Amino acid sequence: CLATLIIMLVGDTYTLINYVSFINYLCYGVTIIGLIVLRWKKPKIFRPIKVNLLIPITYLAFWAFLLVFSLYSEPIVCGVGLIIILTGVPVFFLGVYWRNKPKCVNRLIESMTCWGQKLCFVVYPQCGSAEEE
User: Fold this and answer.
1) Residue 125's pLDDT band (boundaries 50, 70, 90)?
2) Are 3 and 84 in contact (CB under 8 A)?
3) Which position has the higher pLDDT, 128 or 76?
4) Cα–Cα distance between 111 and 114 in angstroms, integer?
5) CA distance 127 to 109
6) What is the pTM (predicted TM-score) of this model?
């Protein structure tokens, strides 16, 4: 979110749309790859919708063509899109992967979550830690 705000202040909206569209198509392709891997490694699990594997494989072929073409035609936009994605890696390690955080870090994360919920009206904020309840 912070990276998007900085880009909006520095660049134009068209460039931001290009960054986001590259990120979206990259995530769509990774999702389809995950679908194919799960169908191959765990074919017996329940799926509410099951399609022929030819459909996601065909989609993946077109996706790869479009992604390679995007990388070839606009490498800087794609590079910035990848950098935007990679800004989430430290957030993941600080917020999710790091299990034994000090209490001050937990309090900071909880207060940021509560503030974000109030600001965006996303979820009714339940401020206060779960330890208190």
Assistant:
1) low
2) yes
3) 76
4) 5
5) 11
6) 0.61
Burial string for 35-49 (b: 16+ CB within 10 Å, else e) reads beeeeeeeeeeeeee
Contact 68, 29 (CB under 8 A): no
What digits encode the pLDDT tens for the residues 55-83? 999 999 999 998 888 889 888 888 888 88
Q: 46-50: long-range contacts (C-beta < 8 A, 24 or more apart)?
A: none
- Among residues 109, 117, 114, the alpha carbon closest in space to that of 127 is found at 114
The amino acid at 31: T
Let me know: does 29 contact 64? Beta carbons within 8 Å. yes
